[in-house]
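To whoever is on call:

I kicked off a structure prediction for a single chain this morning and the downstream step that reads the tokens threw a length-mismatch warning. I double-checked the sequence; it's 114 residues and nothing unusual in it as far as I can see. Pasting both halves so you can look.
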Amino acid sequence: GNFDHGHKCDIALEEIIRTLNIVTEQKTLCTELTVMDIFAASKNTTEKETFCRAATVLRQFYSHHEKDTRCLGATAQQFHSHKQLIRSLKRLDRNLCSLAGLNSCPVKEANQST
């Protein structure tokens, strides 16, 4: 019931925070994160829509960078760091979708700014 859902949300939020801390600490040759307006939402946007949008932007980012040719030519240590970062972003995507209560979020173009 509600306890289970609330408990799952708490666990997902804890993992999201932990993952964001890891991602912001990692600096890799292969990922130059663009500042994305993933949490900027109009007044009529629901929490679920905001979580879905964030997950969609992350998915677009890591899908693009997963096969980044700069990373394929990186040193072993740089490539390992890059793979760990991509894994963290995938976990973050999964947790955001979980908070939205969906298995996957619809893919739309996301607004980006630098």
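Update from on-call: the warning came from a stale cache, not from the record. Cleared it. Sanity check on the structure: The radius of gyration is 15 Å.
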